[in-house]
């Protein structure tokens, strides 16, 4: 079977009008428990964190990938909600999105980027390494405990989010 040709796409910051499409990209992964399903409001609240791969036009966007960079602390962010359309897997879109998010982290002066993933080899190719525990000092840990964000709770490896993280690997990139 010959793979479908890869259509050109552009990477750009997500817009509020993209939220429905972002959710559409995430839904198959959430159904397989690879990503966490979120309410629409959560995507609207964080749309500025997203980069999207758009194979359409300005008038008719066609999102084929997305990913977000969530700031966790003054020197730390998380890559989250990385999804590529199933028909475009293996075409490099995910790598381009991660590269753009890491570039954004550098531009923001961050020193570390975290991810919680099943795709260890994929992130390893971007320089991420497997970690154990939570790589912050006790003072920062105590501050992060105050967050209501489930991603922060996953980073802290809190018991209340264990069902979401089973089988995932904790990885860190030092910039």
UniProtKB/TrEMBL annotation:
> Any idea which UniProt keywords this protein has?
Acyltransferase, Transferase
Which is a Pfam family this sequence falls into?
Acetyltransf_1
What protein am I looking at? N-acetylglutamate synthase
- Native organism is Sanguibacter antarcticus
Which molecular-function annotations from GO does this UniProt entry contain?
N-acetyltransferase activity
The record's section on PANTHER family has:
ACYL-COA N-ACYLTRANSFERASE (PTHR43626), GCN5-RELATED N-ACETYLTRANSFERASE 2, CHLOROPLASTIC (PTHR43626:SF4)
Annotated ranges, domain N-acetyltransferase: 9-147
Superkingdom of origin organism? Bacteria
Task: Provide the Gene Ontology terms for cellular component.
Answer: cytoplasm
Supply the Gene3D superfamilies for this chain.
Answer: 3.40.630.30
Q: Which PROSITE patterns match?
A: GNAT
């Amino acid at each position: 079977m010959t793979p479908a040709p890869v259509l050109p796409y552009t990477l750009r910051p997500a817009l509020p009008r993209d939220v429905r499409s972002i959710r559409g990209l995430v839904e198959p992964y959430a159904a397989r428990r690879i990503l966490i399903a979120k309410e629409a409001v959560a995507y609207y609240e964080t749309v500025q964190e997203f980069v999207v791969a758009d194979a359409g036009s300005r008038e008719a966007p066609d999102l084929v990938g997305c990913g977000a960079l969530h700031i966790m602390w003054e020197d730390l962010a998380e890559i989250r909600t990385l999804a590529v359309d199933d028909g475009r897997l293996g075409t490099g879109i995910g790598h381009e999105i991660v590269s753009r998010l890491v570039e954004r982290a550098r531009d923001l002066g961050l020193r570390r980027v975290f991810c919680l993933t099943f795709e260890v080899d994929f992130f390893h190719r971007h320089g991420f390494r497997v970690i154990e525990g939570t790589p912050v000092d006790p003072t920062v840990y105590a501050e992060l405990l105050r967050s209501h964000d489930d991603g922060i709770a996953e980073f802290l490896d809190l018991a209340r989010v264990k069902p979401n993280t089973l089988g995932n690997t904790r990885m860190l990139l030092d910039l």
